[in-house]
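Late entry, written up from scratch paper. The run itself happened at the end of the previous shift, but nothing got recorded in the book at the time, so transcribing now.
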Amino acid sequence: TQHEMSEQPSTSNPQKKAKKAGTEADNAPATTTKTTTTTATNSESRRSKIERITKETQVRVDLVLDGSGECNISTGIGFLDHMLCALTKHSRWNLTLSCKGDLEVDDHHSVEDIGLTLGSAFQQALGARKGIKRFSHAYAPLDEALSRTVVDISSRPHCVANLGLKREKIGELSCEMIPHFFESFAQEARITLHVECLYGFNDHHRAESAFKATALALKEAISKADHNDVPSTKGVLN
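Output as recorded:
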């Protein structure tokens, strides 16, 4: 957001002007968000572009919900890139996502803000919550691991993520941040999301099966129903 400064009398002290400008910069909003949304009509895809900039991260997302599974992802965290590509592939989204974060601190801010921004993009791209199936569940195995995800496109943000991960990290991604990613995504996507790994001993497999189950459940939940009603007895989902 740009702020216009009124002209000051020519007799004012330039040093005071510089000091004032610096103070305004210091007091600028910590977070800015730019959004562009395209709602599906006929052959068009439900699409949203969002840019979220804070003092800790810069996240850019271009999300197409009715895509073909194409992903172009760069977060600076290799295993998170891998998980987001799995999410994109099996949900049949098209996703371009980049993040420049303060990884010299740790991965918390980046993972959280990626989840928040992707959730916002999902919410914006989905548009009016009518004519969709709303509820869905899916299972996804990966070798010995099996995960289940249940989704309600409810406009009531809630997440329960129980993956039972034992390692401190998978690659450079902290295991504690994987459930937090799902929580952050659900918060801004305004959905109810239950993700659970039922069993499995390999944490890579447990995490990946959870992302794949989530992708399958989301794909079904936002798919077109055989009606154009709001799927709620209240008549609204907002």
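The first strand starts at residue 32 and ends at 38.
(Scratch paper discarded after transcription.)
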